[in-house]
């Protein structure tokens, strides 16, 4: 099995290398220990005893003290192409993914125009085969033009290679259209990923509704704007025995709604973003939209704790960045006028390691498991370090400290929620679909010397 | 103090200092020649993205009384109409090297952004529904004159708190001066979580009698169509401050402009316990004091010797 069976990537040389004395950790495969990771022809050939693997001419990297994880999979990225290439495109977005330790990503369809025809999907796949650093899958919209009125040609879209369906950026307001999409899924498959929000309740809201919005005089988005729609769609999915995935959970009530749906046997999965797992609405007091304005909004500490609990008990099976690049002129305006969204691919692992693992809130193994958990909900095989698997590896230095943005970004945009933060833990090398997709420059130099 | 962006950022002593300065300007206001030379040769820009009568006119007059050169820019009829961004407009105006930019803007945090983009001192004259610090200062000034001190005084802020920047700034300022504040209005117009700012919340005027000061807020017509209240008639019946609900010892305030017969009865507005006209008068001297503190503060000698100014040495008027 290869990620390239369902996703597209630029052709590249299959790697032959050895990661010497890496601390290998893949909780799902039950692997934990110091090994020489031997990659031959893009495949994990062997986890040899430390220092014992025979090089046979392969490149050797001194990974002593570093960790080798299954590379991460992000089911929620905005590549902004077509239409907004000034913010991001396939090339820059997948470079950012590679730098973040990702071996695969799914691109959302809310582009300009939205991805809603088979031709749109084919054109994007062509671009990915020409310029993607890591395998990319493309979502198609549920509704034509994302207008929420008529279904797209879901069968043809799937035949053209759409991984799944999502109107992300907007909720599917019409329960009738939602029901029809779930019915049609029986014909064509493809998980339907949902941005859950009741626009009637969100209104003009620009941040979480609570004491901070009261203090700032900003219109609030109540938690129930999200959780009531999750409850509705879980009921519809149960009714049609359909498969849904809830995007970017933000509120405690939403975690409860997903947990209840799972307990009732609904085929539902859920993701949470690094920023919702690390930040609260207290950050909005700075009125800095570049780092702290996104949809759904940052919420209270109790919501953050509920998301973390969801990660622990499996209600939230994956972490997704909702990487949403924007240019400076869309963010250098008052908070209410600013575009929503922050970038996250390059910092997800480091931020979550710094904020959740280092203080002991969650185990390293859990973080690794959840960062790779975004593949399975879309029928894609989870990256694994078990011998015989395709080489999808993130080699990380957990002690490396770096300041975000200091050396620029791989992304074309700079609206990182981590901008200026000093993080502990850094991706040094990424292997994706058997290829070396990223190497931190200083690390490469160190090895050469 | 480099900028005045939010009451939130001021301590009690800083508030007192501005109010004391305003008192001295009130004294100047009683002279025949009301102008002082403090800001001679310096430029004040007022940049208003929203309509305003009281705030814009009082800031403009304050700048003139301090002998500053004044440039008034309104968004209508300016290059803002042509789609110029706030950042570019501020850069353009900053090229005139103004000492201060006074900005009103429909969105929260605008003044704070302007302060990042210009070397001038920035005064927030109202940013969205966030803050209106000069209003809060003039209201505290007005009350201090009447009551001496706000310590332990009970103040009720009544009406559309949700959409009011005045409510937010005053809530903070009154408390910082030692008062106990209750906000009162229908649940649809009281922001969720406001009590974390330290005030009490009431949805009825029943206990209004316990207040020493009643501060009424403007109720806008369009709130009805947005279903915040079922009708203005019912709102007035339930929440209008009138002479029946007020007792004669209570002081009545309102930031203006008033909707007569909605949040306040005509009789209450015109009653002797109403401080509305005093608030307007206070607006001028308090805004003079704000400009003074920002542009000439840090130098303590009193600038206020009587005269036409031209004969005065001007020890102040230099940048702090």
Arithmetic mean of pLDDT of chain A: 97
Q: Runs of chain B with pLDDT <50, length 5+?
A: 300-320
> Biggest sheet of chain B, strands in spatial order?
7-6-5-8-9
Examine the coordinates and then state which fold CATH places here, giving the name of the CATH topology of the largest domain in chain A.
TIM Barrel
Tell me how many strands of chain B there are.
9
User: Largest protein interface?
Assistant: A-B, 20 and 24 residues
Q: How do the SSEs of chain B run, as a string of H and E?
A: HEHEHEHEHEHEEEHEHH
* Rg of chain B computed from alpha carbons, rounded to a whole number of angstroms: 20 Å
* Span of the ends, CA to CA of chain B: 10 Å
Q: Count the beta strands of chain A.
A: 18
The major pleated sheet of chain B works out as:
5 strands, parallel
> Approximately how much helix is present in the residues of chain B?
25-40%
Mean pLDDT of chain B: 91
The helix/strand class of chain B is alpha/beta
Architecture overview:
The complex is a heterodimer of chains A (449) and B (320). Chain A folds into 2 domains: 127 residues, Urease, subunit C, domain 1, CATH 2.30.40; 307 residues, Alpha-Beta Barrel (TIM Barrel). Helix content of chain A is 30%, strand content 22%. In chain A, α8 packs parallel to α11. Chain A is globular. The model of chain A has no long low-confidence stretch (mean pLDDT 97). Chain B has 320 residues and is α/β, with parallel strands linked by helices. Chain B has a 5-stranded parallel sheet, with helices on one face. In chain B, strands 2-1-3-4 form a 4-stranded parallel sheet, sandwiched between helices. In chain B, β8, α7 and β9 form a beta-alpha-beta unit. Chain B is globular. The C terminus of chain B is likely disordered.
Characteristics of this structure?
heterodimer, A: 449 residues, alpha/beta, Urease, subunit C, domain 1, TIM Barrel, 8-stranded mixed beta sheet, 8-stranded parallel beta sheet, globular, B: 320 residues, Rossmann fold, 5-stranded parallel beta sheet, 4-stranded parallel beta sheet, 14% strand, disordered C terminus
